[in-house]
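User: Can you predict the 3D structure for this chain?
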Amino acid sequence: MAFTFLTRLTKSISLLSIAVILTGNVYADSSDDKRSEFVDVGALLPNAVLDIRYFGHHNFVGKPVDGYNAPKCLLHNSAATALKKVQVAAQTQGLSLKIYDCYRPQRAVDHFVRWVNDLEDTRTKAEFYPNLGKDKLLGDYIAAKSGHSRGSTIDLTLVDAKGKELDMGSPFDMFDTLSNTDDPRISAEQKANRYKLKSLMTEAGFAPYSMEWWHFTYKPQAYPATYFDFVVE
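Assistant: Here is the predicted structure, written as C-alpha cells:
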C-alpha cells in the first residue's frame, strides 16, 4: 500500500510540474538567485532619462504600484547589454532613450488586475483610456501575466538633445488603437518617429508589440516561462 501511495504521489507531482511548465506559470520570489542576473540600467546608461511611471502617481492606476520601491529600471543582463547598443545608436542621431518601465514584479501585475476589476475607479480614464470601457482593458492592454516580469521587456521612447520627447502621436500607456504602431490617424512625422524608435530597437534584437508603439521585448528571452516577483529597489 505504501509503495502504491508513493507511486501515485510521484506521478501527481510530475504531472503538476509538467502543467506548470506548459502554462508558463512559474513564479520566483526574492530569494531566487536569478536576481543577480538583473542589471540596474540607470547605472549602465547614465545618459538615458528614467521616468519610471509605476513608482509614482502619474500612471493609469493613479498611485504607486505594488513592488516599485525605487524609480529604477532593472533588466536581465542580456537585454540590458542590447539596450546599451540602442542608446549608443540613438546618440549618434542626437537622441537619447527615455524609459518608462522595465522589469515588473508579478505583484505589480496583480495590482493592475485588481485595478481593472474595480470598475468604479475611473479617475484616470480621461488620460489613459478615454474611448474604452475599463472592462475592455484586460487582455490586449493589461495582462494577468506580463512579459515584463521576465526581465526582457521594456517600455520607452526617444528624446532630443534638450530632453524633449519626440512626438509619437499618443502618450505612453494610452489604451487606444491610436497607440498601435501603424494607426492610420497619426501624422507622417509621428509615424516616422515611431519607426525611428522601432528601427533602433529591432536592430539591437528587440521585437515590437504592434498595439503599443513603446513596448519591446529582447529575443530570445532569458527566462521565457518564468515570472519573477522580487521588488524593484
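The CA atoms of residues 54 and 211 lie 20 Å apart. The chain has a mean pLDDT of 90.
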